[in-house]
Amino acid sequence: MHGLAEAVGDRIARSWKFALLGVSAAVACALPLVAAAPAGAAPGGKVYITLGFDDGSISQWNNRDVLQKYGVNATYFINSSAITNAPVTNTTGPYMSWAQLQTLQAEGNDIGGHTKTHVNLRTQQSSAQLQDPNGELCGDRKTLVNHGFPTLNFAYPYGEDGIGDPNPATRAATLQAIHQAVQNCGYQSARVTRAIDAPHDTDPCDEDPNTGPPWDCVWAETWPTPGDPFGLRAAESHLNNISGGDPDKWRWSDSGPSGGIRGAISRARNYRGGWFNIVLHDICVGDANDVDTCNPNPYDDYAIPKDRLDKLLNWICQDPQLQVVTTAQALGQVPIPPKTCQTGSVTPRIDPPKSPLVKKPKPRIYRISKKSKRRVRVTVAITDSSTVRRVRLLVDGKVVRSYKRTGASRVVFTIRPGTGKHKLTAQVIDSAGEKFGSTTRKVTVKRRR
């Protein structure tokens, strides 16, 4: 959701350094900017990654299967006034229903607050309004709690926690007043949209921890104790940075481990570890390299293409130093479970041949005849996964059939392989076009006597 402060919020999101000029030394100590490693500390460490979806849009519900595919959960920061009383089966939106939020919580996800109507707490709320128990800030949490959500964590709309105060003389006081108001409402944390560095050509920072202090890059929030629980540092990326020649290195790119969001997480892991919050809105479906395709109304710059999220989660799951957690888990409000992140793999099965013309069919021998036009039927069984979109059959390494799956647990392929020994391979393909499971069976095709 967006309002009159969008331009201000966008400026804040791009950089955090400009706003700290003039903040007193006392506040600077209370809000450490650099997660510097102690002298002699060994580089590297585990990174806990939180996917923070703001606003409660229906696309987050409709596309949550990509999270379920890998067995991970997220934190959803909700504007309570946008939530409807529609049934859980509603998928049209634009926002989720209370029933859908309750399902998300039952699945292990974390529900947080985001004000009633996505207001800017600095520009659109007076001191009295910030303290109003039924107002935008406290009233939002009150509504969520009344619907059965603990709601201990908050995300500032537009990332604005007071740091955007244009007056250096009052900035520290504004920041402190807003942080205190959030705490007074009963929250235990609040996330901003800045402070994890996105170094680019016009604002370089020291990327090499081996060059010695001071290390002026912040690759992650400190963990288990954040620098400021009411100014939780986060990474954000605008989808429109993907094209247009923007020099900013933060992109939802999958161009390799040295670039994009994967590169940012890798730097945190290789440096000292920590907590890596990612700011997200919609999960959009379309061409990730075409903003106009993947970013129609109501999608916005904070959307992430579903196929890129799929690849990101697959990469995280396979690295033992990376783990997806909710905000509540990262802060110790609930335990962090052992990493049981599923790889998303689904193993298909090639069933043994069956023929009413053969009394005792052998499990690896297919029989052909003139009557059958020298064709054989190969049945591929899929044990589980709603994420399977296509099933392929390969004969001796060459794709001979590819069928779109419509939900059936078995797919039957009719092929003409010729007599002799062959290697059959069944592959399953997910919604991102990635192969995530296969099986192979060596068979012999003979003429029926």
Mean residue pLDDT: 77
Number of strands: 18
In terms of DSSP E residues, the strand content is: 15-25%
What is the H/E order?
HHEHHEHEHHEHEEHEEHEHEHEEEEEEEE
Task: Calculate the terminal CA-CA distance, rounded to whole Å.
Answer: 71 Å
How many DSSP helices? 12
Helix content: 10-25%
Given helix and strand content, the structural type is alpha/beta
Reported for the largest beta sheet, the result is: 8 strands, parallel
Choose one word for the global shape.
Answer: elongated
Radius of gyration: 26 Å
Low-confidence stretches: 1-42, 199-203, 240-250, 288-292, 355-359
Mind explaining what this structure looks like?
- It is a single chain.
- The chain has 449 residues and is an alpha/beta fold.
- The chain is built from 12 helices and 18 strands.
- The strands form 4 sheets. Strands 1, 2, 3, 4, 5, 6, 7 and 10 form an 8-stranded parallel sheet that branches. It has a 5-stranded mixed sheet with strand order 12-18-17-14-15, with no helix packed on it.
- Strand 6, helix 9 and strand 7 (274-280) form a beta-alpha-beta unit.
- The model is unreliable at 1-42, 199-203, 240-250, 288-292 and 355-359 (pLDDT under 50).
